[in-house]
């Protein structure tokens, strides 16, 4: 089953239909690891990122958080060397964002 994430004005992310892989590189087969990642996996990552963004900035609109989450995920997806790198980078950057945001909120108080 495939999923897509809707953007404003009825735009959607293109589907990737291959099954999700758990390898950290291209598997030595010469292909790009990104081709084996199902769009449903990426969509779930975007939803998770949007939830973190919502917790940091509850006043922002759902559409704006989703758009930002999609850009965030896509930049990491394009730069990652493998699925493990992709997942670790998302987690690391979200933790850093949360930590920085918490410090910023304390400074305002």
What is the number of helices?
3
Helical content, roughly? 55-70%
Q: Overall pLDDT, averaged?
A: 77
Report the C-alpha radius of gyration, rounded.
15 Å
Name the shape in a single word: globular
Proportion in β-strands: under 5%
Task: Measure the end-to-end span.
Answer: 47 Å
Largest sheet geometry: none
Indicate the structural class.
mainly alpha
Number of strand elements: 0
Extract low-pLDDT stretches. 1-30
The SSE order reads: HHH
Characterize this entry briefly.
This protein is an all-alpha fold.
Textual characterization of the structure:
- Helix 1 crosses helix 2 (62-79) and helix 2 crosses helix 3.
- The protein has helices spanning 39-56, 62-79, 83-108.
- Mean pLDDT is 77; it is low at 1-30.
- The protein is built from 3 helices and no strands.
Descriptive tags:
disordered N terminus, mainly alpha, 109 residues, 3 helices
Secondary-structure map:
Elements: H1 39-56, H2 62-79, H3 83-108
Helix pairs in contact: 1-2, 2-3
């Amino acid at each position: 089953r495939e999923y897509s994430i809707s953007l404003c004005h009825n735009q959607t992310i293109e589907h990737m239909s291959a099954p999700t892989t758990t390898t950290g590189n291209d598997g030595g087969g010469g292909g790009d690891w990104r081709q084996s990642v199902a769009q449903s996996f990426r969509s779930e990552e975007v939803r998770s990122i949007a939830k973190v963004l919502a917790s940091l900035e509850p006043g922002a609109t759902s559409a704006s958080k989703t758009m930002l989450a999609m850009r965030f995920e896509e930049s990491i997806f394009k730069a990652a060397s493998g699925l493990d790198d992709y997942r670790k980078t998302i987690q690391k950057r979200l933790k850093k964002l949360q930590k920085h945001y918490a410090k910023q909120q304390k400074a305002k108080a």
